[in-house]
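Protein: HTH cro/C1-type domain-containing protein
Species: Bacillus amyloliquefaciens
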Amino acid sequence: MAILINMEVEMDQDYMTELVSVQLKKIRSERGYTQEKMADVIGLSKKALVQIEKGRALAEWPHVVAVCALFRSSETLQSVLGDDPLEVIEAVAHRTIDRPKGKTMGGRVWWKAIEKKGEFRLQQHLISHHYRILDSYDDLWFSSFEKADALERLDELFLEAEEAKR
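Structure follows.
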């Protein structure tokens, strides 16, 4: 089954809910879980899980978040959300994240380089289209769906680093 992602759709909670709901059965099967086990793990009734897997209902937002957190290494989930589904879900939930967050994989697969200033670089996620700023050690400093905010923060981080050198 081919997975089609509409690159024109804004990545929001509704879109994420639909995207994860459609893949839930594959995610469960990939892990080797029964419906009972999967329902228990993500906090659903088995009846609700069956309805989602048959396409009669969508998962609710808290269950989508749980799936992204608990199955973040799932190949199926990564194929629709990129290398770090948890980062995508966090960006969708908060719209902007402005704090040093820790090590990333550097964005060599799922990210497009936008701009570089000093030790900081701005990237855009190829699937969700959110932006992030990494330093030269691949630490995440900022994440947002707003390009203008990301560019402004890139300038600020660059200036702060330059001032610290003096």
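Remarks: Helices lie at 13-31, 35-42, 46-53, 61-70, 75-81, 85-94, 147-165.
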